[in-house]
Design goal:
About 10% of the residues lie in helices and about 35% in strands. It is built from four helices and 15 strands. The longest helix is centred in the middle third of the chain and has 9 residues. Belongs to the OXR1 family. It is found in: Mitochondrion. It holds the Pfam family TLD.
């Protein structure tokens, strides 16, 4: 099985689609290599980052992501993306209603933000899904979440898929085998692809989804074990949030 390559900041060109609280968990980052990360800017940043706050979710909103799981995901973000001490809720099924159109509108409004210095910076997006069997999984997209507008896939090598299932946390980094990172159309949103499958797929009802091992991330199916359609495992989405990971 080939090794996973973590290539932060690697630019990827666009291509068309190849196909028509939680208990404190055992953190286990998925990697074909167990080599420790070298000490560098990431190590320095870890010393400067404080506790993480999740903002924008109303008290009455049913939560999908909590701080414990968010901190685990944060540890795998690109070094500079670990700086923000607050993540902002961009979209929640429970808070904003079941609408893919609304999801895109909420996320695209936050795709770029001005910093205090006046510079415009990208805002990464974290997609968090809960299925009917209580598995929690999703995708981190460093370029944010936006409609592809018929231009095909977008995204960079700092993106990854992840899952928290049965007490185990895993991250699936970009392999470099293709650049099918994110494809977000009016009828569906998807992450990872190739060989006729999607790593993670959710249709416009925001209820029916599937996950399969894909070349982009060499991931295991992210969801709970369910009905298989070919190589993909189907799931029912019962919770969905998108978080902005900007400054």
């Amino acid at each position: 099985m080939n090794g996973s390559l973590d290539v932060p900041g690697t630019s990827i060109s666009r291509h068309n689609s190849p196909v028509e609280g939680l208990p404190l968990p055992r953190s286990k980052a998925h990697s074909r290599s167990q080599t420790p990360s070298p000490i560098g800017i990431g190590g320095l940043i870890e010393k400067k980052t404080g506790n993480l706050a999740l903002k924008g979710r109303k008290e009455a909103t049913t939560a999908v992501l909590n701080v414990t799981l968010a901190e685990m995901i944060r540890a795998h973000l690109p070094a500079l993306s670990r700086f923000p001490r607050a993540w902002n809720l961009l979209y929640s099924i429970d808070q904003h209603g079941i609408s893919l159109h609304t999801l895109y509108d909420k996320c695209e409004n936050q795709a770029h933000l001005k910093t205090n210095s006046g510079l415009v910076t990208k805002v990464g997006a974290l997609v968090v899904i809960k299925d009917s069997e209580d598995a929690i999984f999703g995708a981190y997209i460093g370029d944010g979440l936006r409609k592809s507008m018929g231009k095909g896939y977008y995204g960079s090598g700092e993106s990854f898929l992840w899952r928290y299932v049965n007490g185990n946390f895993q991250v699936f980094k970009w392999t470099g085998k293709n650049d099918y990172v994110a494809l977000c159309e009016p009828e569906y949103l998807s992450f990872g692809g190739g060989d006729g499958v999607y790593g993670l797929y959710l249709n416009d009802t925001l209820f029916d989804g599937s996950s399969a091992r894909c070349p982009t991330f060499d991931n295991d199916p992210l969801c709970s074990l369910g009905e298989k359609k070919g190589r993909a495992v189907s799931f029912e989405c019962v919770g969905l949030e998108v978080w902005g990971l900007g400054p």
